[in-house]
Give the backbone structure.
Amino acid sequence: MKTPTAPEYETQGLAPLNLVKIVDTLPQEIFDDLTKLASQICGTPIAVMTLIDENRQCLKSHVGLKVFDADLNKLFCNDAFLTKALFEVTNAQEDERFKLHPLVIANPNIRFYAGAPLITHHGFCLGMLCVIDSKPRHLSPNQRESLQMLGRQAVSQIEFQLQSSALKNLNQALSKKALFYDALIQSADESIISTNVDGLITSFSLGAEKMLGYKAEALIGRETPLIWHDTHEMEMRAAEFSNTLGVNIKLGFEVFVINAKNGQSNAHEWTLISKDGRRIPTSLTVTAIYDNNETLVGYLGIARDITASKQLELSLAKTADILQRTNEMANIGGWELNLQTMQAEWTSEVFRIHEIEPSNLPELEKLIDFYSPEARPTMISAIEKCATYGTPWDLELPFTTAKGRKIWVRTQGCAVIENGEAVRLVGAFQEITAIKQNQIDRDLLNHEISKANDLLTHITNAMPALVAYWHADLSCKFANKAYIEWFGKDPKEIIGTHVRDLLGEQLFTLNEPYIRGAIAGEKQAFERTLTKANGAGSYTLTSYIPDININGEVDGFYVTVVDITELKLQEQKRLADEIAQRELLVSEVHHRIKNNLQGVAGLLRVSTIDYPELSGLIDEVVSQVNTISIIHGLQGRASVSTVRLCELVAEIAASNKSLYRTPILIDIPKFWKPCRIAESEAVPTALVLNELISNAIKYGDPTIGVNISLSLEPITSSVLITISNNGQLPADFNALSFAVIGKGLQLVASLLPKKGALLVWEQCGELVCVKFKLESPIVVLENEELENYDVFKI
């Protein structure tokens, strides 16, 4: 038996059915009908429709044969394919080509075979429509023609299905693209609108709805874009086109699309009017839409809101106008020098400063002559460095105009670099004569002010008081030598420092009410026990005097701090000697302060003879010092109306601690109910306490010091003050007759209240304890109970 070879057209002429999914589809009724018709028309028991691709052959439909995906050689198809025409074998058993074929010598014992190739209109062979019989036979001409007709029907059906599948895929792809483009258009901020050729709206994007305020359903198929356009703008545009094109362009839709109709798609600015009447400047681009036959079917318009850019243009124009006017007002001009052509360009202001006509630009070599001789080398060097190395300059130089006027100018220049080389010099030119004169005047004034400040500093440094000035923001602006030395800091650490940082949190909290009063415009004066930087304690009188400007606003406040420690000690001594001297001593303290301030005032007045130019400033200071002096004179007649026991003990202890430089410890219970001393008994009680504490220091160990403790007896509303020191009572000491022992104790005996006070001495081991008990009417307990009572925060 001859074994046919695989035909060449398997890889050249066969349709790629594997790509169009025909081979792998399920049996279909249409093909089964064609196979049955072939069997009936040809009178054969077997009819087969085979489809092939490059790699295999399959049975698409069959009648009377149960062979699926048979080898291509097994069904006579090779020879049939080669002919590309109806192929007929009348008796395979007698045909040398097929008599040994497996399907001839065995079941189904094929004898007759006729096959019509399935040829597409492109010439591709898709397979065969075959009829088979186990008996030899011949097809009649009608049967042969019918079999070929059925083959062509099979091809038509296959092509139809291929086209349907391709169309379905295309529709799906187009649908996806349509959804994508629709989403893209709807998500755009621009207004995107399409119309037909007559201007009727066919689509209206979400961006258009947001911009114009109309809904798409109210416009599509009903309106044209004319409804939101400014009629005056359309008239102007129509007139413009009429003049340009030489034809009469009527007012209407044609105004918007005439360029697009002529193949142009340029943008033009239009003002759109929204539904609510807002006028929106836009940039509108209109493009013509053509179908596949190049027929115009409509227009697409994309409008972009340019409100922001218009506002920016307006702002830039205003800025440019302001800059031009400002330059003219400031006498500033601009210039440029082309280093390749050596051509210079000036603005009008540069010509005006030179006092020459704009049409008479001097030669470059002569421009340097406008500068004063001493300034020319500097100017030449600056230009050469800028042209060679790109170094900019900014100089203020003396200058002589073309009319001989002597002025000062400020000249600035820099290089424009291209490809690493300076190609142009550009810069600014300004007359600064007035500025320069103002600078000279200002320097002179600053010099005079500096002299005045130096004088003020010398005067305040000569004063025994601490003097400072605090700004309203509570930063220190001035401090005299005494003030700086008191805090033991470098002047740089004080000037500019916040008052809280300088005083510390505790002292700032005590002084804050007075500070706030001064900032509110009210003079403040108070006494305070302070500790110097060296640890020494001092009693001071502080005054805060508001600095009120001509507008009635407080710029800050002046501070004077006078150390009155010695005066306080004298006051305490006089109180210990005789109660009657109290008012005199207080008056003397304030009198001395007043005298000191009056002396300062006198010194200041004398200084006006040597420095008459500062008379105004000195008179102001003298007025403020006199005010302080008057206040101190009035305070000399004041009296204390309310005294708390704890405060009194603490102040006397602090004074003795400072005076004798010995430690004193005050112990107050954690929970303490403050008590008030009766006004009439405050001075006698203070003098008694002072004597008891000073005696404890004198007769005790000064290195160990004195302990003072306070305790309450709520039931009797009494207070017990215990003062203890190291030492021994004399053997013959009699507490009942202590009045005969020393003048100090005699003073205590004379001042001790007759009612509500009890004084007892005891020897407690190595300690001498003095117990001073006070009760009503000497002391009155207050209702408020304080925890962790701190007398130094009262």
In short: The longest strand covers residues 406-418. Residues 141-187 form the longest helix (47 residues).
